[in-house]
Amino acid sequence: MREAAQQLGILLVGPPIEGPIREPEYRRVFQEMTQKNVGALIVSDQVEHYAQRRLITGLAESSRLPALYPWRGYAQIGGLMAYGINNIDMFLRAADYIDKILKGAKPGEIPIYQPTKFELVINLKTAKVLGVEITTNTARPRRRGDRMIRQREFMSHR
Question: Where do the structural domains in the chain lie, given as residue ranges?
Answer without folding.
Answer: 2-86+117-157
